[in-house]
């Protein structure tokens, strides 16, 4: 998986390319933890994300919990396949999805 970050002032956008699974979830978790200090707006761009596993959902949920305390988080460009995973797991009601 490739993680592309763009930070401006208190805004952080993270674009994910590939698969967010058991192998790659720790990478995303590390990037999020290292970069969330002072961030009030977090955007996760899923345009090129092909797959998300339960390990990936856990990292997204942890990010959402952190951002609930310090600002907002939005997930953008979710594919129909990933949206289906969100709906089946009940995850679609937790983060803001655009």
Structural commentary:
The chain is of the alpha/beta class and 98 residues long. The protein has a single domain, classed as STAS domain (Transcription Regulator spoIIAA, 2-Layer Sandwich). 39% of the residues lie in helices and 37% in strands. It has three helices and five strands, in the order ββαβαβαβ. It has helices at 25-35, 54-70, 80-89; strands at 2-8, 11-20, 41-52, 72-76, 96-97. Strands 1-2-3-4-5 form a five-stranded mixed sheet. α1 packs parallel to α2. The longest helix is centred in the middle third of the chain and has 17 residues, at 54-70.
SSE blueprint:
Elements: E1 2-8, E2 11-20, H1 25-35, E3 41-52, H2 54-70, E4 72-76, H3 80-89, E5 96-97
Helix pairs in contact: 1-2
In the sheet with the most strands, the strands line up as 1-2-3-4-5
CATH superfamily: STAS domain
Q: Name the CATH class.
A: Alpha Beta
CATH architecture grouping = 2-Layer Sandwich
The third-level CATH topology is Transcription Regulator spoIIAA
Mean pLDDT: 95
Q: State the oligomer.
A: single chain
Give start-end ranges of low-pLDDT stretches.
none
Broad shape: globular
Residue share in helix? 25-40%
Sheet having the most strands: 5 strands, mixed
Structural class computed from helices and strand pairing? alpha/beta
How many DSSP H or I helices?
3
Strand count: 5
- Which radius of gyration do the C-alpha atoms yield? 12 Å
The fraction of residues assigned to DSSP E strands is 35-45%
């Amino acid at each position: 998986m490739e993680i592309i970050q763009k930070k401006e002032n208190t805004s952080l956008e993270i674009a994910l390319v590939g698969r967010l699974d058991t192998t790659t979830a720790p990478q995303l978790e590390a990037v999020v933890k290292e970069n969330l200090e002072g961030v009030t707006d977090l955007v996760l761009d899923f345009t090129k994300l092909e797959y998300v596993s339960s390990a990936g959902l856990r990292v997204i949920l942890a990010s959402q919990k952190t951002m609930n305390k310090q600002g907002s988080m939005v997930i953008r460009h979710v594919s129909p396949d990933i949206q289906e995973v969100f709906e089946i797991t009940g995850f679609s009601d937790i983060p803001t999805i655009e």
